[in-house]
Amino acid sequence: MGAVTDEGGQYFILQVPPGSYSVRASLIGYGPVVQTNVRVLIDLTSTIDFSRNYALQEEAVQAGEVVVIAERPVVQPDISGNVANISAVEIQNLPRTSRSIPN
């Protein structure tokens, strides 16, 4: 179960069955904070204020391997003429003829 806070940090998690829970707060760029033994009783509201009781510590975001895959569409509807996309390697591999320029 979980929830997202509003701009003021307020959140509600509804319909939590009675019992004892560990509640974790996390934010991108910060390490998670966990409060254990949070008791939820029938028909009562349990309040946990992470901003007062626990300070979130800054933590570097670890990014895994990023793979970007892109394909050029065969037909581009916004182009009305003929277009050829040629790479630098293809230009270098074109056959060449040499002509001497007359003086």
Describe this entry's structure for a reader.
The chain is 9% helix and 19% strand. With 103 residues, the protein is mainly beta. It is elongated. The chain is built from two helices and two strands. A two-stranded antiparallel ribbon has the order 1-2. It has a single domain (1-94), classed as Sandwich (Immunoglobulin-like), CATH 2.60.40. The longest helix has 5 residues, at 88-92. The mean pLDDT is 80.
Topology:
Elements: E1 19-27, E2 30-40, H1 50-53, H2 88-92
Antiparallel strand pairs: 1-2
Task: For this entry, give a set of tags.
mainly beta; 2 helices; Immunoglobulin-like; 103 residues; two-stranded antiparallel sheet; 2 strands
